[in-house]
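In the design runs reported in the main text, the only information available to the sequence generator was the tokenized backbone. The following block is the verbatim input for one such run; it is reproduced so that readers can re-run the procedure and compare outputs position by position.
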């Protein structure tokens, strides 16, 4: 394989479009050859620089670029040059190549062309106080928070792994190098191979918290790679990005499922309080009683009725507090 062919593969690899066999070849190459590893790093940096800069929004029509370039080169008949006509052509060709390459990296990386193949398949939605686990065919598990929506591509796990999230979800993505997992979130894209992260969006903001692995976040003008422990906040109005460390008090909604197996009533009450934002008082002599029960998918009223039933008690309300009585 000659150098031009290898460079073509490096570009595909940097843009996340290499096939499984090409990925294996490139990763073996860069692990054994420092030169090609350095070249890949340069390509990746160029990709990020182009994505984050406005000056590279160029017309991709090659003929127009040639015409524009030719107009900018005025050769006075009687003027002497220190370089040959051959060199002039060489520099001109390099300039056009740079323009076309810039367009290729900017628009191809920016559009996430894989997602153009997205066809609406199965859709999952959650209502108030409902959190569900969704097991996908590739082995990935997505926990969908309340008032959220997940749409899975009709052909998921055939050639691509594509989903769209509206609201908030926790992703545990199975590793599959030949099929990158891409989640669309408020017209931005989160591209991964195998990792654990949380994604949340609303009208003006996209948030990503990364717990394991790596993710690439791509918007119209930005491309950022996160490492574990980092949180990214993207403002959709200003296109500005802020990256910080995940705080210890970061809300982990997926750990607050209302499914209990042989759990003390005091702990059940604490979970219900967090989910429904209420104060629930339990008598001391019942706090250590253990129950197996699920409140998932229920609103506050039905959850309290179920709690009354399983504990053989009744619940009264005084102002903003609920009391479980014998």
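Verbatim output:
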């Amino acid at each position: 394989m000659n150098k031009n062919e290898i460079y073509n593969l490096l570009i595909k690899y940097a843009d996340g479009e290499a096939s499984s066999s090409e990925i294996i070849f490139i990763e073996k190459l860069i692990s054994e050859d420092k030169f090609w590893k350095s070249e890949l790093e340069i390509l990746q940096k160029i990709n990020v620089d182009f994505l984050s800069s406005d000056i590279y929004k160029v017309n991709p029509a090659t003929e127009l670029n040639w015409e524009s370039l030719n107009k900018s080169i005025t050769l006075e008949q009687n003027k002497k040059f220190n370089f040959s006509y051959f060199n002039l052509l060489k520099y001109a060709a390099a300039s056009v190549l740079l323009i076309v390459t810039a367009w290729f990296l900017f628009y191809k990386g920016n559009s996430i062309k894989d997602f153009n193949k997205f066809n609406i398949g199965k859709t999952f939605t959650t209502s108030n106080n409902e959190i569900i686990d969704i097991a996908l065919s590739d082995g990935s598990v997505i926990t969908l928070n309340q008032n959220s929506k997940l749409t899975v591509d009709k052909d998921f796990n055939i050639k691509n792994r594509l989903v769209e999230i509206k609201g908030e979800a926790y992703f545990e993505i199975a590793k599959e190098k030949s099929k990158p997992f891409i989640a669309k979130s408020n017209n931005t894209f989160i591209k991964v191979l195998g990792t654990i992260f949380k994604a949340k969006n609303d009208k003006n903001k996209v948030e990503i918290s990364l717990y394991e692995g790596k993710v690439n976040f791509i918007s119209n003008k930005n491309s950022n790679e996160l490492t574990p422990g980092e949180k990214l906040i993207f403002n959709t109005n200003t296109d500005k990005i802020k990256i910080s460390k995940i705080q210890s008090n970061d809300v982990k909604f997926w750990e607050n499922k209302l499914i209990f197996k042989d759990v003390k009533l005091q702990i059940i009450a604490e979970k219900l309080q967090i989910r429904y934002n209420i104060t629930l008082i339990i008598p001391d002599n019942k706090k250590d009683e253990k129950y197996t029960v699920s409140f998932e998918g229920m609103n506050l009223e039905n959850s309290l009725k179920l709690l009354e039933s399983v504990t053989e008690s009744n619940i009264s309300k005084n102002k903003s507090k609920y009391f479980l009585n014998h």
